[in-house]
Design a protein that fits this description.
Layout (H helix, E strand, L loop, with lengths): L2 H21 L3 H12 L6 H17 L6 H23 L6 H17 L9 H18 L3 H7 L5 H25 L5 H27 L2 H27 L1
């Protein structure tokens, strides 16, 4: 990886972690478009390795706000979806990973853009969201969008904390699944370790963003970036195939 590629990756992680700490999601929306062009083989394990400690830090910042019962139902669904996602990613040719991430990102953006409030007793919906999240999260590191739809209606603090619980458990499950399928390598660990200080900077930056930036506008900006970058990646990938 060249110096410019690494700097682009670091900038994406800084911005993505600042968004993640502010909204409770959005890290993958910012980082995947960059890493999928720089080195798609670093995805998705690098995002999980960075995301797990970050989610733990979010829980420490907002203790006692997580909705544990909802997180438990989502985790039950993830237990089914995670191995399916790990199996899917092993079937994708390495040269087509960028296309896969572009399509997955467009689908995830569409899910996140849906405005709908979740019913507190919709256990079946939580299980289904967990299943879909397990598949998308393991195959493409995009497990958040189904959960943002299922948890819609919670207060901002409760929303971020509950998502953080789901991400910690779900990302650990995805890492184990990818390791069992032979797709977790030392270079993923090394790359994540080098980028970890950048993510720490994004965490502290997010504390300022929460107080000063309107969450709705930030969310719209992140989704717009994800859509535009995904379309550009799709066009370029399809052009290479022709």
């Amino acid at each position: 990886m060249t110096s410019i590629s690494f700097l682009l990756s670091a900038l994406a992680v800084l911005v993505g972690s600042a968004v993640y700490g502010s909204l409770g999601f959005g890290f993958a929306f910012v980082v995947i478009p960059v890493l999928s062009r720089v080195d798609p083989t670093m995805l998705p394990p690098t995002l999980w390795l960075l995301g797990i400690p970050f989610a733990v830090a979010l829980l420490r910042r907002e203790p006692g706000h997580a909705d544990v019962p909802r997180a438990a139902y989502i985790t039950a669904g993830k237990l089914v979806g995670t191995p399916v996602g790990a199996a899917l990613i092993t079937l994708v040719p390495k040269g087509r990973l960028d296309l896969v991430f572009a399509v997955a990102l467009l689908a995830a953006t569409g899910l996140t853009a849906i405005h709908r409030e979740a019913s507190p007793t919709a256990r079946r919906m939580l299980l289904s969201a967990g299943l879909v999240s397990g598949v998308m999260g393991t195959a493409a590191a995009l497990g958040g969008p189904p959960l943002t739809l299922a948890l819609r209606g919670l207060s901002p603090q409760r929303f971020r904390a509950t998502l953080a619980v789901c991400f910690v458990v779900g990302d650990l499950m995805s890492l184990v699944a990818m390791w069992l399928f032979g797709n977790l390598q030392w270079r993923h660990l090394t790359f994540a370790a080098v980028l970890a200080p950048v993510m720490v900077g994004g965490y502290f930056l997010s504390s300022r963003i929460i107080r000063r930036v309107d969450a709705r506008h930030l969310r719209q900006a992140v989704l717009t970036f994800a859509v535009v970058s995904s379309i550009l990646a799709l066009v370029e990938g399809l052009r290479d195939m022709l």
